[in-house]
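Input chain follows. Return C-alpha cells only.
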Amino acid sequence: MQPGSLVHPPPRQVIGRAPEVSASQPKSALEVLETRLGMGRPANWCVGERGRAQVIAGGAGQGSHAVIIAERVGGVRETGPMPSYVAFLRAINLGPNRKFPKADIITATEAAGGTDVATHINTGNVRLTIGFRSRAKVEAALEKAYEEQTGFAVPTIVFTPAELTAIAEDARELTASRNDLERHYVYLLKDEPDAAKVAEIEARSDDVNAVVVRGRAAHVLLGPGYEAGGVDPFKAEKGLHVVATNRNFNVVTTLADKWCT
C-alpha cells in the first residue's frame, strides 16, 4: 500500500484499523475503510483536491495493521509518498519573551500536519514530512501553527534535503579555501535575493572578511581578528532585503549529514 498524504492540519481522528494489510494490495485508504471495516464512505467525503486521508501501514508479512487517519474537511485526495523538509526557525529562544522549547516545536509541527518530526539542539532546527509539495505552503502552515503555539510570529525558512545538502557542500568548499578562517556563518534565506543586492553586498568583502551568496544562502567568512559575538559585520539580512536566519558551519553540515543522506 502506498502511503497517503495529509493535506490539512489536525484535528485528526483515528476512524479505523484494518488488520493484516499487505503492501501489495492495490487498495486505497477509502477502500480499506469500506471493505475491511464494513463501513460505507461518508456522504461528505469524495475524491478531490480538498481534504485528506492518511494510511500508515507496516511492510507486508509483518502482521502489521493499517491505521487510517482522516479528517472531515469536504474531500479526500491521495498522493504518493510525502516529501520531507528541513525547517529553520528565526529568532527563538533569544530572550524571555520568545521561548519555544523543542517539545512545543514538535507539538506545533505535528499540528501543522507534519510527521516524522525531529529537532536538533535549541536554535529551531526541524525535520518533518508533510503532504505539501510547495515550499511556500509548508512555510505558511508551519508559521501559522508556531504562532498559535507561542503567541508570537516565528518566521520559518524551509529547504528540501537536496537544497540543504547543496548548501552544506558550498560551505565545506568555502571553508576549505580559507586557511585563516576563524568563523563561518550561513544565512539561510527565505527567498532568493535580487542579483543587484547580491553584487552590492559581495563587493564589501576584503582579504580578511567576505560574504558569498549562493542561491538562498549567504556565507559569511570571518578571518583573523574575529571577535566573539560578531556574527555578521556585513548585516547580510538587511543588505539583501530578505528574511533570514543564521546558523554556524557546524550546524549546517551536521544537519545535512544527519537528515539529508
